[in-house]
Structures are given as C-alpha cells and as structure tokens.
Amino acid sequence: TIYAVFGIVSGTYLDKFGAPWTVFLGGVFEVTGLLLIALASPDGALDVGVVRIPEAFFGGVIAISIGGSLFAFSSFHVSFAWKKYLAVILAAVNCLFDGSTAVFAMFYFVHSTYGLSRMTLFLWFAFFTSMVAQLVILGWKMNPPIEHAEHPVTTDELGVALLAEEESSLEDGDPQSRQEQDTQPSVVDHHEDTVHQSPLVERNFLQQIRTFEYFFITMVASTHVLRSNFYLGTVSAMLESLGDADHMYATTKAVGY
Fold this sequence. Notes:
Elements: H1 2-17, H2 19-39, E1 46-48, E2 51-53, H3 56-78, H4 86-98, H5 102-114, H6 118-142, H7 155-171, H8 175-183, H9 187-191, H10 205-209, H11 212-241, H12 250-255
Antiparallel strand pairs: 1-2
Helix pairs in contact: 1-2, 1-3, 2-3, 2-6, 3-4
C-alpha cells in the first residue's frame, strides 16, 4: 500500500531530478529502513543511548517501501544506459521485482539452517543494498543520458533560423551556396516531417495526466494490479486448502507470501 501511494511521488521526482538522484534517494530510504529493522528490539522499539524510538520496526518497513518505490521507477531507466541489452534489462527488472518476496523466504531458510540473527541478516542486506545503489549510480555516470534542450525548438523557429543562415551565406557571395539554394527544396518544408514533439518528460504533471497515453496506462495498470492483488490476498488460503499445512507450508514459504 505504501509503495503504491508513494508511486506518484517517485515518478514526479524521477522526472524532475533524473535516475541517478532517484537511485541515491531510494538507497538512503532502503538502507535506513533495513538498519531500523535490524537494530529494533523484539517489541519493535529502538534504544539509542537514553533515547527510545517507539515503532522503529514499523518505521523501517515504511522506509524500505518508499525506497523500493524509488528504486523500481528508476530501475527501468537503467536499460537506456545500455541500449544493446535494453530488452534483457527490462525483463530482469520485472522478474526480480516480482520475485523479491522470495528474499524473506531465503532469510528464513538461512536463519533456520545456520542460526543467523535478524540483526546479522538485515545488516548484511543493508550493505548489499548500498553497494547496488552505488554501482547503478556509477553506471549512469559512465553512460550519461542524452540531454534534452531546455526550451524545445519548434518547426517555425528551426525553419527561420536555417533560412537566416542560408541568406547570410548568400549575402557573402559564395557561388556554391547559391547553386545549392537553387537545387535544394525549401528548408521549412524539408524539416517539417523531421521535427518531433517535445518528450513527455518535458511536460509538467498536469499536462501529462491530461494525455490519452496517461489515461490508457492508468486503466491498464489498474486492471492488472487489481487482479494481482486479488491473487496476493488469496494465494495463502488457496495453498492451505490444497494441503500445504501438512507440509509445514513449504509452498507458501517458497512463493514468499
């Protein structure tokens, strides 16, 4: 729920500040949340010297939910840094995100097999998360995205600028420029089909939500998320009815719900 509610904030932040800063902020929330979960006492509180922080465990859960939202939105942009592997990266992001619930099943297996404490597991996972965030930011620095113009040039502005440039060369008396002017079509007509609309990222929030694309994506996402939430809410009961309790809920633990 927190992930879904914070999604609009994550998307807006990503559009305004870009993927590297979104990864950085997501890493801060993730590591902070994991540390709170690792260091919280069994009653959920955290003692820092003489100060007692109540509900530190719950605060950690909220923090990793917010960090997960920022990570998820920015992860899709990573594929554009390595366009050769774009499809593979997008598929990996989707699969790893959907399979991330298995992390807690793996934690339970390690804890029950090797006796590692909650603190040890989550401290190591916080370190791993910080390393992943730094590697992603480093990847963006090594493969910087193409910067868009702050004020996109319209077709008319481009045509006027190019015509002025050609007129200037003609006034200088360049014979080759005169010959090319006679043989080439109009500059404005030539560029009419090559000038594209400004990217969606350059529109503000109110302009984006009024587009057909936003409405269509919202409707499709709402339908699929509703279906997946029904599955998440009923899969445990379904597995129990199929006899998973007789096997110490092995399938439920493997699925991670």
